[in-house]
Amino acid sequence: MKKGNPKALLPILVFLLLYLGLGLTFEYGMGIAMGFYNIPIVIAFLAAILVACLQNRKVSFDEKLTIMGQGVGDKNIVTMLLIFLVAGAFVGVVGRSSAQSVAYFMLSIIPARFAVAVLFVVACFVSTAMGTSVGTITLLTPIAVEVAAASGFAVPLCVGAVMGGAMFGDNLSFISDTTIAACNGQGCAMKDKFRENFHIALPAALVTLAVILVLSFQAPLPNPVVQPYHLIQIIPYVLVLAGGIAGINVFVVLLIGILSGAVIMVSTGQTAAIDLLASMGSGSAGMFETCMVAVLVAAMCSLIRVYGGFDALLSFIRRLFKGNKGGQLGMGLLVGVMDIATANNTVAIVMANPIAKEMSEEYGISPRKAASLLDTFSCVFQGVIPYGAQMLVAISTCAELGQSVSAFQIMPYLLYPYLLLLSSLVFIFLAPEKKS
Fold it and tell me: Fewest C-beta in 10 Å: which of 48, 277, 319, 335?
């Protein structure tokens, strides 16, 4: 193993101090609402790259630019960027009304006693189809509050069910930026990662559903929830999900989703034909920051790798974690720490990817299992931290609807992330390693 240079990790430390330090100061020290997300993550990464460029004077600035360019120009990074943009266009075309139709359709055919369980299942489906946990929570939290008000279930229970389901789809969806980042970073097919991931996520989801049902039957008999819906609008989501599971090229799947969504949204009068391009543009534009983060992280990590920073980190991990299963746990904890620091599971995966790639070779971990571990552990931590976007969006949405709910009231009901962690540990220590 190459000799490591711990000082080369300084840019990562600078980023964490700027992003996490200022975020916590704004959010909790100064009491700024959503203060953690007032910190421009792109600027924090630019500062970290500047520090990286000032290091190692043996390498000229032109050489450093070449190194960064090689990192950004990697095939996996380019593929990731293109998928981000096309996935954004898909979400822009289908809009939110389609997901609302999914929710209200399922609530209309299920008895009121199962309303919270339906919220969880709907959130699982919608987030898997949309590929975004924050978008799912933004969309379904008002429905959760409405279900709570109409049925009599507790608001934290309903919101917790939505958040858990949102993280299920964030972890498994073929168009989720976490899936895209993990698969491209580790060099595995999305369908292989999905199959590997599904064995971890399904048991956690089933046990979560069982616990929700137990809690539901302990509550007084609720009232039914009835809202209008357009069943035809769920077709684009079904096509994307089915195409992804079938292993069709992700670009083809997304194009099918965009075309079917465009036809349906126009024919049902939800969108004017002239507005479709604008909707696609705004959807792709919503991915710009994620794309820039991927570019900047690739550039920064290229310098850190050349300087010997990853070799130093791998040396530390090798001393701390032994064997294949120890390496898997170390990989999961690595991305978990990154997520706690950045409060963004996609950024955490992108930052951990190059280190995890070397760890997978060091510990004999298959690419699909590495991608699965990165995505799963990042979603576990992102799903429970009280300052994450998911929690902050849920709380702020509840407040807008006249329901004062705190993160600590919701956290006991975040059943799925807790059970996903347990399922992940069982998966690591009991499941045999498959050959690539």
Answer: 319
8 Å CB contact between 108 and 229 = yes
DSSP 380-420: HHHTT-TTSHHHHHHHHHHHHTT----HHHHGGG-HHHHHH
Kindly state whether residue 21 falls inside one of the protein's structural domains.
no
Q: Left (φ > 0), alpha (ψ -120 to 50) or beta: where does 238 sit? A: alpha
pLDDT tens digits, residue range 291-308? 887 788 888 888 888 888
Range of the domain at 378: 74-430
Is 23 a member of any domain? no
Within 10 A of 123 (CB to CB), how many other CB atoms are there? Answer: 31
- Under DSSP, is residue 317 helix (H, G, I), strand (E, B) or coil? helix
Question: Residue 129: which of 84, 179, 91 has the closest Cα?
Answer: 91
200, 372 contact by CB (below 8 A): yes
The whole-model pTM stands at 0.70
Which residues of the chain fall short of a pLDDT of 70?
1-3, 33-37, 76, 80, 95-100, 102-103, 106-107, 150, 219-227, 241, 244-247, 250, 341-343, 387, 400, 432-436
Number of domains in the chain: 1
What tokens appear for 379 in the block?
Answer: 């979603």
Return the residue matching tokens 């000082």.
7
- The answer to whether residue 47 sits within a structural domain is no
